[in-house]
């Protein structure tokens, strides 16, 4: 059924080039998908392999000329900064971040010899108590809470990393910043995920997850993770978004003949939605929170080009919508990332 609908999709599209159609018409090429597993189920040696590969990305010089980046790790963050204006509260929220995670995994594997698949953080297990989560262990994890006025993470493997991007569009050196908010992290609960999983169409499902689980993960970690533009400066970002990608993949699997091709939504966020707190003013009147920054940092400066929207006939996101990783991976259409076990992506979640 899925195979059939992909064939029809490819055949019906006049935009896709012939080689692409061929790849798309062959949904059976993913015979041995990589297994993306929950962080807490990994052996210590597997955790170490992932962390070491991330440290390797942090040590390798930038190679794609992306704004403000010194290392490959920064370049991943830069992609997010450059696309953030059209990557949240839009139809491509899920597909963009799916390809983004693949780009991260691809760099870990090809540049840093990582042999595993991208892990994810089973956040519901830590809902309400992020500050106690094993993923933030200093020994076998991402380090703990930020300390001092600057909220710097001073333990664990990433303690001394100088991050050159953020808050927001700003290019400025700072540490990795965190400020756990256990109360906010309650929104990562299994019950909340289940409520979104029960939605029967993509628009409701996407809005539900972005509003609840997505926001709770960012807000529960706090500081740098609360900035919708520069948040991937905290390496926990990728573990959070893998969790969200898993939720989408599991939802798709519940009705693949419909959900593997179900897309929609606006290409640009409704006014104000892309701001942290979605509506309220999170910036307050005192000095800016490290990592979150100020309202001013959220306004795209002149040296950052407005991201292009390519592939859709109108303002509604379609399967032909082009996703860009600025050359870290080739551009892909949304249709190419709809199926995690298709002709392009080849992974599944446990
Ligand atoms: C499609 O899949 C079959 C079987 O796995 C393989 O032999 C064939 O080369 C694939 N075709 C393309 C265009 O990838
Ligand atoms: C974290 O763990 C400690 C020790 O088990 C416990 O006392 C504390 O209540 C936990 N914090 C939260 C927010 O659950
Ligand atoms: C960070 O720097 C301090 C002081 O130079 C050093 O003691 C510590 O081992 C470093 N930590 C890491 C994870 O590199
Ligand atoms: C898309 O949105 C813009 C700005 O809101 C509007 O000017 C334009 O008419 C819309 N185009 C279509 C095809 O709806
Ligand atoms: C990739 O997409 C971007 C826009 O998102 C576009 O500017 C760029 O030219 C594309 N690159 C290629 C090689 O098609
Ligand atoms: Cu994002």
From TrEMBL:
Under the heading SUPFAM superfamilies, the entry gives: Di-copper centre-containing domain
Q: Could you say which residues form the signal peptide?
A: 1-17
Protein source organism: Thyridium curvatum
Tell me which UniProt keywords the record has, alphabetically: Copper, Metal-binding, Signal
InterPro entries in alphabetical order: Di-copper_centre_dom_sf, Tyrosinase/Hemocyanin, Tyrosinase_Cu-bd
Name of this protein: Tyrosinase copper-binding domain-containing protein
Q: Does the keyword Cell division apply?
A: no
Q: Which PROSITE patterns match?
A: TYROSINASE_1, TYROSINASE_2
